[in-house]
Amino acid sequence: MSDEPHFLREERVEISRADANSEAAVEPLQLGKRVREIRLSQNLTLEEASKRTGLARSTLSKIENEQISPTFSAVNKLVKGLGIDIPQLFSQPKRSAAAGGRRDITRTGTGTPHPTPTYEHEMLATQLTSKKMIPYRTTVRARSFEEYPEWVRHDGEEFLYVLKGSLLFYTEFYEPIELFEGDSAYYDCEMGHSLVSTSEADAEVIWVTA
């Protein structure tokens, strides 16, 4: 028989029960879903994330779709390539218990730069996590559709507003259409899409991804 006082054993049992109840209330982490959330929050395609992390595009896709579990080496590559730390990868996004006063102001030219071969993005409202919308300002560097190795596609819906210049808006199921300053478009992001500047200076747009 244990020499531990009875009241300590009872206290330990109560703590164990509380821990069990707490664990039962915690939603299990879906690592693949978390990787996808982080990738999309940075407006990265699978191809771009593959180049950043050094992981094959097919491997990333399998991880995001919970078809395989990442190895320790793959986790390190994800963390380094996506510019995050390990706790961010293995923690659920924080959710507010009730509607609150979230606010984020981005001063002119102070957004987070994210250049790609075809676009030069300026990510806006980057201090807020778990956003329902991802806003960013983009300079369209591409001058030909052939500059895109594949269609840009990702989850969600997207709103596009032309700030400066003109561009050709390519979509997978429609003919290309030229958009001018003040024009806008709303579309399904899972449909392949891309932009090509047609004005003398590179076009500039505001994108909001939901």
UniProtKB/TrEMBL annotation:
Annotated GO CC locations: cytosol
All copies of domain HTH cro/C1-type, residue ranges: 35-89
GO terms for MF: DNA binding; DNA-binding transcription factor activity
SMART domains: HTH_XRE
Record's keyword terms, sorted: DNA-binding
Alphabetized InterPro entries for the sequence: Cro/C1-type_HTH, Cupin_2, Lambda_DNA-bd_dom_sf, RmlC-like_jellyroll, RmlC_Cupin_sf, TransReg_Diox_bact_type
Gene3D superfamilies per the UniProt record, alphabetical: Jelly Rolls, lambda repressor-like DNA-binding domains
Region (Disordered): 95-118
The name this protein goes by in its record: Helix-turn-helix transcriptional regulator
Species: Pontibacterium sinense
